[in-house]
Amino acid sequence: MEPRPTVAYFTMEIALDPRMPTYSGGLGVLAGDTVRSAADLRVPMVAVTLLHRRGYFVQHLDESGHQTEEPAPWTVEEFLEETPARVTLTIKGREVAVRAWRREVEGVGGARVPVLFLDTDLPGNAPPDRELTHYLYGGDRRYRLCQEVVLGVGGVRMLQAVGYHDIARYHMNEGHAALLAAELLRQTMSMQGEAKVTEDAIAAVRRRCVFTTHTPVPAGHDVFAMDLAREVLGRHDALEVSGLFTHEGLLNMTYAALNLSHYVNGVAKRHGEVSRKMFGSSSLDAITNGVHAATWAAPAFRSLFDRYIPGWRVDNASLRFAVHIPPDEIRAAHQRCKRELLDRVKSQTGVDLDADTLTIGYARRATAYKRPNLLMHDPARLRRIAERVGKLQVVYAGKAHPNDQEGKRLVEEVHRAIAALRDTVRMVYLPNYDMELGRLITAGCDLWLNTPEPPMEASGTSGMKAAVNGVPSLSVLDGWWVEGCIEDGTGWSIGEAKDSHDRQRDAEALYSKLEDTVIPAYYDNPEHYVRVMQGAIVANASYFNTERMMYQYVTRAYFS
Ligand SMILES: *Cc1c(COP(=O)(O)O)cnc(C)c1O
Question: Fewer beta carbons within 10 Å, N or C terminal of the chain?
Fold first, then answer.
């Protein structure tokens, strides 16, 4: 008999193990950290995702930064256990059998959260259907919609098939899983013996659903033509109710999730405001993202915290006590992390970075609104800063989505700047950014740079990983940084907290802050710099973690 968890967490991607390429970036890392904290806090939860047997992709970069992709297959049996459960779906008029693989995530106190990975690669399925759970964010619109049927509808049925009959809350981590609400509606109607969608049935589904929206960027919101929806899903009463699953004549997963959830939230206070405007929904709440502190603290910081703040792994708020860790110890732990990063840079690129030079880290998905090239907006200026104010070196990483041509062009632009500035500012671009590289870079640089175009960065979490390792951020005031930035206390801001499309002005603000404040602090006032590092732990690691975040979901969304 299965234990009976009450929260079912649905996510298209999840980062559980660096060797399982079942995630692409921030959304999947957040899902993994959410499940880890649920296990720590003994929140009764089960997670549902797709298997992604061929992974996201391996990124190859040539000399000029041209990106090519290769599938990232992995040996499922090494990491997951097959369950005997099977469910059947009808997709495009064909029967598709789905199986589930299982892995348990164990919390600090031994509680476990199972994660179910749905898989359609079964011998009885038609060949194209066997591939439906192969590629994360691969294929065309039809492929994506089929995947969302497997996740949403297949997920609800699979939970029942493996014995979870009393799910109290279905949490949609982004709109990809919104079709779970269609399945819940269908089941509710059939239980009530209704042939039509009733207000009662809608209310019953809403009571059980929670939705977290993750981005103000249009590409992050899935919409599908109704013809395609009918072709893939067949006739479905719920889809024909005007304005329930549709918006402006299209199947819209964000609006579907909004309409069918009793609790909806954005992922930072600023993002909550932006989303309230975007969807005209005054009740939309905000729960700021976090990171799983014990996962993202480098070994040197884990042992430092173990010595000074025993219990920090289950009580992240006590990281405030880092205020009493001697600054020299923080500096020493940081230098160990930095050494580890520089060794990796050396072995991977042959470039010898210097352990005493201010090292800036920038790693995230390469896409236009994140502006990976803002730092080299004016190469002559950057060169002058490095020559006259203080030496700099930069570690870059980030994949562009295979269809994001602009993102790919930006990776090439960064490579051209790296070559052009080679003599004065040493910069490297590490290929294949993933969880493991994320750990190394966020802990090993001296300054974490973030330059998105406000208000597009919903939250951002890599700066939180840096904070756990005492690395201050230098960032545009967007996403979590609006809450996390204490100027000269936890890091530094770039520009003002308002929407900006003025690249020139933002670049200017970035250069001035480096020139006037950050570089002088690093070289001329190391006592102050290490206080800012400590401030990042005291004020930010203690708050921007998934333990605090999970408490907020529990009290506001799950058991409210
Ligand atoms: C943390 C992480 C991200 C998300 O970082 P952002 O700051 O939200 O861009 C993306 N990819 C990987 C591999 C990560 O570890």
Answer: N
Bridge partners for 491 per DSSP: 473, 487
User: From CA 550, how far away is CA 416, in angstroms rounded?
Assistant: 43
Find the largest Cα–Cα distance for the chain.
77
Tell me what pLDDT residue 1 has: 44
Query: Which residue puts its alpha carbon closest to atom 2 of ligand 1?
Result: 26
C-alpha atoms less than 13 angstroms from C-alpha of 514 in its C-beta half-sphere: 30
Does 330 share its domain with 371?
A: yes
31: which 2 tokens? Answer: 């899902």
User: What is the amino acid identity at position 114?
Assistant: P
Distance 434 CA to ligand 1 centre (A): 8
Residue nearest to atom 13 of ligand 1 (CA): 434
Which of 364, 442, 456 should be mutated for ligand 1, with most atoms under 8 A from CB? Answer: 364
Q: pTM here?
A: 0.97
Q: Give the count of domains, the chain.
A: 2
Token pair 């049935």 is at which residue?
A: 201
- Ligand 1 centroid–CA 167 distance in Å is 30
Which residue segment(s) compose the domain that 397 sits in?
293-544
Residue of 24, 29, 442 with the most ligand 1 atoms within 8 Å of its CB, for mutation: 29
293 vs 546: CA distance, rounded Å: 8
Q: Which CATH number covers residue 243?
A: 3.40.50.2000
Query: Which two structure tokens, joined as six digits, stand for 365?
Result: 């998905």
> What spacing in Å lies between the alpha carbon of 128 and ligand 1's midpoint?
32
At 91-116, the pLDDT tens digits run 999 999 999 999 999 999 999 999 99
pLDDT in tens, 513-534: 999 999 999 999 999 999 999 9
CA–centroid distance, residue 89 to ligand 1 (Å): 34
- At 410, phi and psi to the nearest 5? -65, -40
Of all residues in the chain, the percent with pLDDT exceeding 70 is: 99
246 shares its domain with 303: no
In the structure encoding, which two tokens stand for residue 151, read together?
């996740």
- The residues lining ligand 1, judged by C-beta closer than 6 Å to any ligand atom, are 25-26, 29, 364, 433-435, 438, 460-462, 465
Q: Do both 336 and 251 map to the same domain?
A: no
457 Cα to the center of ligand 1, angstroms? 12
pLDDT at position 230: 95
pLDDT digits (tens, 9 = 90+) for 190-202: 998 988 899 999 9
Q: Are residues 168 and 256 in the same domain?
A: yes
Same domain, 353 and 204: no
Question: Are 555 and 4 a contacting pair, CB within 8 Å?
Answer: no
Q: Please report the atom of ligand 1 found closest to the CA of residue 370.
A: 9
- State in Å: Cα 93 to ligand 1 middle: 38
